[in-house]
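Would you mind giving me a polypeptide sequence along with per-residue structure tokens?
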Amino acid sequence: MDTQNKTPLLTSDIDRVIEMAWEDRTPFEAIAFQFGLTEQDTISLMRQHMKPSSFKMWRQRVQGRSTKHLAKRSTTVGRFKCSLQRTISQNRISKR
């Protein structure tokens, strides 16, 4: 990650980036928008904070996956939303 113009990420932010990177439907552009990390920054972060075997498995899954890039995505792949999202007890949004 280019640390010249970027503030260091908190541990909770790093955990969230890793979680978003593992999700098939979350594009790298969403990570860039939320955390300011490019695809290469995300890959570097994953390499640094994961076991080598886990990183290798993740890279094999992500390479060539069209859902990880907005420009390559089919228009039929929308934003994922769980059908139970409103009924999850710990979801603050559902309690508004």
Observations:
- The chain has one domain: 11-95.
- The CA atoms of residues 29 and 71 lie 10 Å apart.
- The chain has four helices and no strands.
- Helices lie at 11-22, 28-35, 39-49, 52-62.
